[in-house]
Write a structure and sequence with these properties.
Elements: H1 2-13, H2 20-28, H3 32-44, H4 52-64, H5 68-80, H6 88-100, H7 104-146
Helix pairs in contact: 1-3, 2-3, 3-4, 4-5, 5-6, 6-7
């Protein structure tokens, strides 16, 4: 929900960055921030037809141009599965890139996924332990039945 609110706020604030044509020209001239802004416009459908696929392309370009916010936004698409298959590995890749550019949100999102994965692994380990314990109890019960 925070992501949607942030995108909406950013999209309405983009008019200060120039017209859609100006933003497109700047992105075409390899301005990473403009590419991120263009991705946001496509993601929310502000003054343009909504397209998560195009948002993904522009966020990807922004990330390649070392705009950390573009990396975070691309990571978000993968984390939430917006217009792409949900993929935590891809999300981590882009959050990590943003984090390495000292983007606090990228670092925070990366840590969140790592924490989620750790908790999931702990649950899997506990389930494995319980299944093993159950198997041992069933073997004991079989031995008692034979007596």
């Amino acid at each position: 929900m925070k992501v949607i609110l942030l995108i909406t706020i950013l999209a309405f604030g983009l008019h200060a960055a120039g017209t859609l044509e100006e933003i497109q020209r700047s992105c075409d001239a390899d301005d990473g921030i403009s590419c991120t802004n263009l991705g946001i416009l496509y993601q929310v459908g502000k003054d343009i037809n909504k397209s998560n696929e195009k948002a993904k392309v522009y966020y990807g370009k922004a990330c390649k141009l070392k705009d950390a916010e573009g990396c975070v936004m691309l990571g978000d698409l993968f984390y939430y599965g917006e217009g792409v298959d949900q993929n935590n590995s891809e999300a981590k890749l882009y959050y990590d890139k943003a984090c390495k550019m000292s983007n606090k949100q990228g670092c925070k999102n990366l840590q969140k996924i790592k924490d989620e994965e750790k908790a999931l692994q702990e649950k899997k380990d506990e389930l494995k332990r319980l299944k093993q314990e159950q198997e041992e109890l069933l073997q004991e019960a079989d031995l008692l039945d034979k007596i």
